[in-house]
Target: GTPase Der
Amino acid sequence: APLIAICGRPNVGKSTLFNRLTGSRRSIVGDEPGITRDRIYGEIEWAGRDVRVVDTGGVVPDDEALIPSEIFRQAQVALGEADAIVMVVDGRTELVAPDIELARLLLRGGKPVFLAVNKMDSVELLAGAENFRSLGFRNVLPVSAEHGTGVGDLLDEVFSALPVETVAEEPTEVMLTAEDEMEEDEDGPAPVRKLRTHGEYEQAETKIAIIGRPNVGKSTLLNALTGTKRAIVSPIAGTTRDAVDEVVERSGHSFRFVDTAGIRRKGKTKLMAEKLSVIMARKHLEAADVSLLLIDAVEGVTALDANIGGYAHESGRSVIIVVNKWDAVTTGRTDGKAPADKKVYEEQVRDALKYLDYAPLLFISAAEGKGVDQVFKKVELVARERRKRVSTGQMNRFLERVDFQRASVPMSKRVKIYYMTQAAVAPPTFVLFTDKDVKLHFSFERFLANQIRDSFGFIGSPIWFKVRARN
Ligand code: GDP
Model:
């Protein structure tokens, strides 16, 4: 059944609303180690439909300092599990920072969200609900959880946003990690299965940017990839006429190559062509999820390649390094300039593109159509990896395992991480709750990213961090 999450800072009346909705039919399940808090689930029937409700607040500690982290945790739960989210505010008090922060997180999550302005116990107070529109919610509903007024209207609204078909009851294998499955075993048969909604893991379509300096083989690769399998050629509404995407459908996944006219465009002079390739790369990255950074195998990584690679890295898009024209290397058409040993070659590329250490690397020959299959497979893999979500429970267990002594960071630059949580996907973004409000030291960030990759993968995607000092 679809799941509605109720969020809000302490004392706004979440539990009262939850009890009002579910009556006595509540069950306590789940107990996240680390920050131990119960999640309370219940069921309601409304307009002939069964829906589950989760009170993300659970048992709130009496500690002001913990509220910001609590807010994050709630948003994480709601955005991870729920089909619709109701945020509750206290209609009789001014908005405070945690309200605003929670609203910001929830509104960014892309799920149906509703603002319940609570404690509107009398008609006089009702009009006051409008003041809370400043939070940015389109759906603002005054309620009195205590008296039950407005609750029916709220439910009508929320129910209209729920999916008619529930999301996949059985997550497919790629959606559950081994650790998730273990978790379920430990907890015994949980009454509420941890579902991941669509979109978090699965994206029907992956947008791909083919980038690289002139003559690395972008057009040739595009032709090889789209070739006879080309299904649709469609301009995206609102873009210029020559921005044409080509879409290839393959084993249930659709691959959209963005702005293919741009990929084919050539500059008149060498300098113009080079400048254009950078401009195009940036434009294409903007529109993409995954980028294919082409390198000419004969020439190796040049300064311009590194420049374009840098933009790819900073864009937050996933990157696959594609060494093209490998045929020319293996047939010795390079005067022995380039090593024909893939391992040696890869080392050289990695050395020149250090910041892209997370990017898978492929050797292909676009002209001969060799390795094209691999490209599709890798794109699918990295597209999935960048949307992966790690639960706060998993994250906390991970933190306990990490040996921070091994990070080569000067003492003065060290921060203590109380805990961390994944705040976003695509690219995976982690919020660290720390003792100091500092920008993370470069090598510390690298160390932590590598540790995260060792445990959770995130193949091909950069990992972003945000620091929140907890005081
Ligand atoms: P773009 O400017 O990056 O779009 O590059 P093109 O696709 O126009 O290719 C530039 C040149 O490299 C052309 O002469 C292609 O035939 C050649 N080329 C592309 N891919 C390969 C390859 O896999 N092997 C070899 N030997 N040549 C290639």
Remarks:
- The chain has three domains: 3-187, 205-385, 392-469.
- DSSP finds 15 helices and 17 strands in the chain.
- The longest strand covers residues 38-46.
- The CA atoms of residues 428 and 463 lie 5 Å apart.
